[in-house]
Amino acid sequence: MELVQVDTQRAYEQIREKIITLELAPGALIDEQHLAEELDIGTTPIREALKLLFHDDLVVVTPRHGLYVADISIPDLEQLSEMRLSLESLCARLAAQRAGADDLTVLEALRQEQASIPPEDSRRLLDIDHKFHQALVKAAKNKYLTRTLEHFFGLSQRLWYMALPQLDFLPTAVAEHLDLVEAIKNGDADRAEQIMHNHVQGFYARVKEVLQAKT
Fold first, then answer.
1. Mean pLDDT of all residues belonging to the chain
2. For residues 158 and 208, what is the distance between their CA atoms, to the nearest angstrom?
3. What's 74-214's CATH class?
4. CB-based burial of residue 173 (10 Å sphere; 0-12 exposed, 13-18 middle, 19+ buried)?
5. Which of 52, 51, 50, 63 is nearest to 24 (CA)?
6. Class at the top of the CATH hierarchy for domain 2-69
């Protein structure tokens, strides 16, 4: 039983990565047997992993046609941006009020690492941005906020990968993160909240422009 659970977790992580990075395209039919062979994992863990991904809103189950990768659209982007705009702003406010010395050290280290990444390396910039937001929500010290934001971040990542070749504005996040870390260090909750609000709003607006241009 324990081995099945380990394999289920491994299958979940690998299939989720394929969906988020668009290796498994939106709307694509999911072949359980093919995934089992590709990942060298039994069909039972694959099936259990897909159930978890269904609850993550990354997989859709249809009665007649089986399992599909969930589709994505501009309305999805707008609804996700509404949620993250409120939640990320709250996260920044709480972090400014609650961050400890260790939290500040991690945030500063991630900001410096992000600043060292070449502007053209969009995938690494997105990865560090994710880690920065994870560190930020950890500093907010609210486990329910942590779980909720991670869920929405996973959904958002697929949209960003669709627009990735045109996301030339990612390097500006370095300066924004610098301002945010300074506001958190100073305990300035109002400023931290406003910086994060502008950061998320600007990011989604640019992604929307890119996605609209594709249609």
1. 88
2. 13
3. mainly alpha
4. buried
5. 50
6. mainly alpha
